[in-house]
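Long-time lurker. I teach an intro course on protein structure, and each term I like to show students one example going from raw sequence to a predicted 3D structure in C-alpha cell notation. This year I'd like something fresh instead of my usual example. Would anyone be willing to generate the C-alpha cells for the chain below so I can use it in lecture? Attribution to the forum is fine with me.
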Amino acid sequence: MLELYDREIHPDPSEDFRDYANAASLLERLRQEGVDVGDRWRELAAIAARRRHETTLVFATLYRLLALVAVREAIGAGEVLAAIEAEARLGRSDQAQVAALVGAPLVRAIPAGAGPPVARRRSRRRWPGSIGSAGATHSAMSFYAC
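-- Reply from a regular --
Happy to contribute to a lecture. Here you go:
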C-alpha cells in the first residue's frame, strides 16, 4: 500500500486540495490500522504549517490538521483550532456555519484521537450536524464519523 501511495497517490509535492486530501486520508487510514508510514507525514505537515490559518474550505482544513497532529506539531495544530473557532464565531465567510456545526467539534476531537489505533477507534463518535456540509464525500464521511 505504501508503494501505491509513493507511486500513484502522492508522487510529487502538491498543495491541490484533492491531492492533499487523498494523501492525508490514506496515511491516516493506514496509521489507524497500525501501519508505520515512516516520514510521509512530514511533507504534508510542511504544507499544513504554511496554510494553518486558512479556513476557506473547512473540510480542507481538517485534512491539514491531521498532518500537523501526526507529526506532533502542537503549536500549528492549536493555530488551526483557533482559526476554525474564529471562523465559527465571527462568520466571515460562507464556511462559518460549517465551521460552527462540524469543523470546530472535529478540530477539537482529531488531536484526542491521535493515540494508539485501538484508542482512536474508541474515541470516534457520530458528530453533530452533517460532515457532508463541510464538503465531505461519502468515503470521507465514513472516515470522520465511524
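Some talking points for your students: The two ends are 22 Å apart (CA to CA). Residues 2-144 form one domain.
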